[in-house]
Amino acid sequence: MDLVQKLSEQYMKPELPEMNVGDTVRVLVRVKEGNRERVQAFEGTIIAKKHGGINQTITVRRVSYNVGVEKVFPVHSPSIVKVETIRRGKVRRAKLYYLRKRVGKKAKVKEKI
Question: Mean pLDDT score of the chain, rounded to an integer?
């Protein structure tokens, strides 16, 4: 088990911002289109965190043109350039799947002071 842990540690990102469920984050993703490469931002609320270590993922949700969009990002993936925490959320649950059913101001998460 230690061998697997040592192998996975070298691929993990050394410093990640503190991000929890309910936080609004901006994820900068490296996108490859043909022979060009650019960085694209995806900003939304973290509604779930899963797994741990090298397999850790976050599910980020945002509403774009009145359509809810969710993306699952592997945190330690080389295609993830940076994760910026924009605002801290005050929540009391581990998964915020109930936000899928809410629209407008009801879908907001209170800010932690």
Answer: 93
φ/ψ (deg, to 5) at 24: -95, 125
C-alpha angle 15/21/26, rounded to 5°? 60
Domain coverage including residue 76: 18-99
Encoded tokens for 113 = 């002071």
Question: Is residue 95 a part of any domain in this protein?
Answer: yes
CATH of the domain at 57: 2.30.30.790
The SS3 assignment for 106 reads helix
Looking at the chain, the whole-number percentage of residues with pLDDT higher than 90 is 77
Q: In 3-state terms, what secondary structure has residue 20?
A: coil
Please say whether the dihedral angle defined by the alpha carbons of residues 82, 107, 113 and 49, taken in this order, is positive or negative: negative
For residue 108, the one-letter residue type is K
